[in-house]
Amino acid sequence: MTLRVRFNFSRILLYLLFLVITAIVLFPVAINVFTAFKTPMEVMTSSPLSLPDEWQLSNIVTAFDKGNMSVGFKNTIILVVISVVVNTVLGSMTAYVLHRFDFKLRSAIFALFFAAMVVPFYTTEVSRFQIIKSLDLYDTLGAPLLIYAGTDLLQIFIFLQFIQKISTQLDESAMIDGASYFKIYFRIIFPLLLPASATLAIIKAVDIMNDMYIPYLYMPSKDLHTLSTALMTFVSSRGSDWGQLAAAILIVMLPTIIIYLSMQKVIMSGIAEGAVKG
């Protein structure tokens, strides 16, 4: 009886914890949604958690036009598509080489990836900026494309978990048939890595869409802004129109929410499968 009471009490505490966490996550989103559909007067006089008296679409329309969201959507799509494709190929190819080939600098390459992961990014920002400037990529889409396309240790680690389960006999059979290393990679290895590639591609795409720092720093021109940097249009030192800003945030959030909700099973299954294989 005592054990049952203790079990129920633990379950109640667990549910309360989940409710608190859910409230912490959803309250800011709810306040943003309500604010996006309120008039300026309602924003100033009503409670942030109160529903709008009348659901106004004027803030959405104004935010889309004033923030030039069509340009933001176009630039964001270009960055996401090209970066994700190049990043996925580079990451899987690097993991394939590190797993299948034994060479002298293999450990050194792992160490460099690990060092790049633990070193705070702001300590290398000046050097990276100078490199981008010297390549004449500053204020072009090429700057964030080059930065986003680079792979990292986490991607390589996840790809390695999947490659370890692919038999080397497949490589050897293909080599006997005269296939080159590139042909083995693109015809045999890469198709078998599609579950991991899909998971990492979705995570990378969401990361790029939410990133404001790199586009704002490397592409200051207005015709190059992305969805995230378009939000800066609604912020000024003299004050902000909170209704329009909330509407702009709502527009920026939608693609990320749609991708996550529609691809949630793919993301979770890919991460779980990689963990089990590890």
TrEMBL record:
Keywords: Cell membrane, Membrane, Transmembrane, Transmembrane helix, Transport. Coiled coil: none annotated. Residues 73-263 form the ABC transmembrane type-1 domain. CDD domains: TM_PBP2. One of its GO terms (biological process) is transmembrane transport. SUPFAM superfamilies: MetI-like. The keyword rRNA-binding does not apply. GO terms for cellular component: plasma membrane. It is a multi-pass membrane protein. Signal peptide: none annotated. The keyword Cell membrane applies. Its main location: membrane. This is Carbohydrate ABC transporter permease. It comes from Candidatus Pristimantibacillus lignocellulolyticus.
